[in-house]
Design brief:
The complex is a heterodimer. Chain A is α/β, with parallel strands linked by helices. Chain A is 23% helix and 25% strand. In chain A, a hairpin with a 5-residue loop joins β25 and β26 (515-517). Chain A is globular and about 80 Å long. In chain B, the strands form 2 sheets. In chain B, strands 4-5-6-8-7 form a 5-stranded mixed barrel. In chain B, strands 2-3 form a two-stranded antiparallel ribbon. By secondary structure, chain B is mainly beta. In chain B, 7% of the residues lie in helices and 44% in strands. Chain B has helices spanning 8-11, 43-48; strands spanning 23-24, 31-35, 38-41, 52-59, 66-73, 94-103, 111-123, 130-142. The relative contact order of chain B is 0.21. Classes of the chains: A alpha/beta, B mainly beta. Chains A and B meet through β25 of A and β2 and β3 of B.
């Protein structure tokens, strides 16, 4: 999720992923792009130097691009902040599926790329698609959630998670166009547009100009559904609704932090169900708590558009009975609190927002509402804080939210049991460098916490209990708990214990902009300072480059197989719904 | 934050002379009603508008080490919203405008700021930073 400014600056300066080609033009969409037939995209060519307008020739399979696309390019002799020329053709689209060779030429500067334009089958397999996205969901999250929720006896799990019943069908490669490493913007954008892009970018290719809102756009799945038919759209998350993952369903920006703009882009699409946090970007700047820099009142705009509004779990109950067909539920000014704080510890910001619904309730309400659409629906459900709590290495909070995510998947499976024309996908957007390595047993001798870490046969089994049967351990702070560690970290104090006073904040910044261990944890009994293995600019643990495991069930699930690029997943989704058959 | 809370009552005795006329204001005192549709300032904040107050908190890393403008937070910031594209400020920040530039204090150390309380939305003309509560003409020292 996190990306440093250095990454952003580098990718902006280069404008593309391959520095060795810095002396040649760049064509967007990039080489080997796969493009849905008739979907609009911006075609941009960035030349390496200043060229003359009359020297510029762009062809598609040898034909002038202007003829094939039915419109002309805009020529810019010198792009802002760049001593070089470019041409742009907004909202191009290709009506004929097939292999396209694109050549851009201006004098000696010649660049060739290929695109594959594809159509979908004529007949849909699935009426509804539910896309469950566990942010940062890695194999260790699944294992730890199962052990904490179900327990284990003599090496066999005492129960199964909901996700355990869904077959893994693909390994997904998550890398960005500018780096092997990746963030939640470019990864979800690949799932939701079919195009890979650069770290921090959503619904655009990352061009070389500084402006974050002028980059060449590609179509999002929500826009494609609006353009091609009448399916309802739902977005559910425990994060701010403008955060990268939900934003990727609808928005276009080079910079995921353009949250005020993203909120407006989401309103332009008007998904029928919008549930999450992040109301601060809906409030005009005059209202205390607002994070807008203008006077736009998005709450009012949604209301005027017929949305039932809910700001608490109780209000969501009322809103679910609405016959308007549209629900806006915002339950926090920022990110919603995590399951461990909401359900058990009452830490974080639960005292300020005591009646937040959980992901399961939000998923159930969304499904109930969206199912009223006779054309079917696309619903994206994000378990956001699996990632948000894995960054600071707050493993107990991350795992409780994995359990919650799994229960939301359970709600999806229950819906699909009654509506078998529903495709369910469960996946992560990227992974974390996290592993379960054994247990930590307070009753092992000594005072040094590392000597209480049980490995191999000494690990035994953890002693979490779930007597009330809610799927969560009744008490997170048990005497023999899972030992979970990150492969990468900033300087921090390892306490070997759950953080009972609120989410872990491992490092804070000093005057040199370096992250140093947060001394608030220095005096926790047994705490030891760990020297980081990340650059001192890293505030928390980072994403891993490891593949993501994708699971799917229902009609269309047979489209997933083997190793797939994240951008390939989009095609399986639109194929299942058959939104763009060849003419 | 764990070790720091316990120290608060003792520190209250050591307030500098300059702050004698200033009223202590805590982060918990800032807002009355908190809701998704907006926060509302507490009666205490409304009553103290335009008055000298002192607040204790942590200095978020400023844009420059020598700055006359910084963000005061209730707990040390583990993220830098100025630096990281997805980081965001907490709801209850206070922006401090110093009467003269002072050097950055370690984010791990609590500071005490004294200044005149300004209440209401205001956009900094130099940075575009929008703030709701400010301490202006302020000075700070280690708490």
């Amino acid at each position: 999720m996190r990306a440093t400014l250095a990454v952003l600056a580098l990718s902006t300066a280069l404008g593309f992923g391959f520095a060795s080609e810095a002396d040649a033009a760049t064509i967007y969409p990039l080489d080997r792009a796969t493009i849905l037939v008739r979907s609009p995209f911006d075609l941009k060519v960035e030349f390496a130097g200043v060229v003359k307008a009359e020297d510029v020739k762009v062809t598609l399979n040898g034909e002038p691009a202007e003829v094939v696309l039915g419109k002309g390019f805009t020529f810019v002799e010198r792009e802002p902040g760049v001593d070089a020329s470019a041409v742009m053709l907004r909202a191009a689209s290709l009506a004929k599926p097939g292999h396209y060779t694109v050549e851009a030429r201006a004098g000696d500067d010649v660049k060739t790329v290929t695109w594959d334009v594809y159509a979908t089958p004529a007949q849909p397999k699935a009426k509804n698609v539910i896309f469950f996205l566990g942010d940062g969901l890695s194999v260790a999250h699944r294992t730890a959630a199962r052990l904490m929720s179900k327990g284990m006896t003599e090496g066999k799990a005492n129960g199964r998670l909901n996700i355990d019943g869904i077959s893994p069908v693909a390994f997904v490669g998550t890398s960005a166009t500018d780096a092997v490493a990746t963030d939640s913007a470019n990864t979800m954008s690949a799932y939701m547009t079919g195009h890979k892009t650069a770290v921090n970018a959503l619904g655009v290719y990352a061009d070389r100009t500084k402006d974050s809102l002028d980059d060449p756009k590609v179509e999002t799945i929500a826009e494609a559904l609006r353009r091609t038919g009448g399916k309802a759209i739902g977005i559910v998350t425990t994060a701010e609704i403008e955060d990268a993952t939900p934003a990727a369903v609808v928005s276009h920006t080079r910079r995921r932090s353009d949250k005020a703009d993203i909120a407006l882009m989401m309103f332009d699409v008007k998904p029928e169900v919008v549930l999450g946090g992040g109301s601060a970007y809906f409030l005009p700047k005059s209202v205390p708590g607002s994070k807008r820099k203008d006077d736009i009142d998005l709450i009012d705009r949604y209301r005027e558009s017929g949305y039932a509004l809910a700001t608490t779990a109780a209000e969501l109950e009322t809103a679910r009975g609405t016959n308007s067909g549209r629900i806006l539920g915002l339950f926090h000014t920022g990110n919603m609190d995590v399951a461990l704080d909401r359900l058990q510890l009452k830490k974080g910001t639960v005292s300020k927002f005591p009646d937040q619904p959980g992901l399961v309730k939000m998923t159930e309400v969304a499904l109930e509402q969206l199912a009223k659409d006779p054309d079917g629906f696309f619903l994206m459900v994000e378990g956001a804080s699996i990632d948000k709590m894995s960054h600071p290495m707050d493993w107990e909070r991350a795992m409780y939210d994995t359990i919650e995510f799994d229960q939301a998947v359970g709600a999806g499976l229950a819906f699909a049991a009654k509506h078998p024309d529903t495709l369910i996908v469960v996946t992560g957007d990227h992974t974390h460098g996290v592993s379960v390595i054994g247990t930590i047993d307070d009753n092992k001798p000594g005072t040094e916490m590392r000597e209480k870490v049980g490995v191999y046969a000494d690990a035994g089994f953890p002693n979490y209990e779930d007597k009330n049967g809610d799927g969560y351990p009744d008490n997170v702070d048990v005497s023999r708990r899972l030992a979970i560690f990150s492969s990468n970290f900033p300087d921090y104090y390892e306490t070997f214990r759950p953080k009972m006073n609120g989410p872990f904040e491992p490092a804070v910044q000093n005057e040199k902009k370096e992250y140093v261990a947060n001394e608030a944890y220095k005096d926790v009994p047994g705490a030891v300072k760990r020297e980081g293995n990340l650059p001192r600019s890293a505030d928390t643990a980072v994403h891993a480059v490891d593949d993501v495991v994708l699971q799917a069930t229902g009609p269309g699930a047979d489209g997933f197989h083997g190793y797939m690029e994240e951008s390939d997943i989009y095609r399986v989704l639109v194929d299942a719904m058959a939104i763009a058959p060849a003419n | 934050m764990l070790g720091l809370l316990g120290a608060l009552p003792l520190l209250a005795l050591a307030r500098p002379a300059r702050a004698a006329a200033a009223t202590p204001l805590g982060f918990g005192d800032l807002y009355g009603a908190v809701s998704v549709l907006g926060l509302s300032f507490s009666d205490k904040v409304k009553a103290l508008a335009g008055q000298p107050v002192t607040m204790r908190g942590f200095m978020a890393p400023p844009l420059k080490a020598e700055a006359d403008f910084f963000v005061l937070t209730e707990i040390p910031m583990s993220i830098c919203p100025f630096c990281s594209s997805d980081a965001d400020w907490p709801d209850n920040i206070v922006v401090v405008y110093l009467d003269r530039a002072q050097t950055f204090e370690q984010a791990n150390r609590m500071i005490e700021v004294t200044g005149r309380l300004e209440v209401g939305s205001w956009t900094d003309p130099h940075t575009g930073f929008v703030s709701l509560l400010r301490l202006v003409g302020a000075r700070f020292e280690r708490a």
